[in-house]
Amino acid sequence: MPVLRHIDLAVLALALPVFLVAGWPMLGYGAGAVAWLGQRALQHWTTAKADATDDPKKVAGIMTGSLIGRGWLAALVIFGAGMIENDAGLAAAVLVVVLFTVYFTASMILRPFERTTPRQLS
Question: What is the pTM of this model?
Fold first, then answer.
């Protein structure tokens, strides 16, 4: 199952030859890759930070801030690519939507198999 957990990264790698062969803007691929990898790194960091605390309010704040911040990060990178080259912004947006769809589907498939330990309430 570890492969399925990172299938979005495999799709990102497979998208590179598709962009090259199809002649799509490489700025779009680069912007989409930066947006996706940046938000995934931010997600990893904030999840680790939330796991390190026992305060439910702090966990909710960290995860909510992460969700909003990651969305803004991706949107601004895509918008920036679109400001440079219109087709690149569209290509980046489509790439990020495809990656999100793959990531979300894989996470829903893996959800029942994840082992979580319930936190003790104090």
Answer: 0.88
Domain ranges in the chain are 2-110
Contact 80, 31 (CB under 8 A): yes
Question: Within its chain, how far is the Cα of 73 from the centroid?
Answer: 10
Cα separation, 39 vs 71, whole angstroms: 8
Q: What is the pLDDT of residues 62-83, one digit of tens each?
A: 999 999 999 999 999 999 999 9
Cα 96 to Cα 122: distance, rounded to the nearest angstrom: 41
Q: In terms of C-beta density within 10 A (0-12 exposed, 13-18 middle, 19 or more buried), how is residue 122 classed?
A: exposed
19-43: b or e for each residue (b if 16 or more CB lie within 10 Å)?
beeeebbebbbbbbbbbbeebbebb
Rounded Cα distance between 115 and 103, Å, is: 19
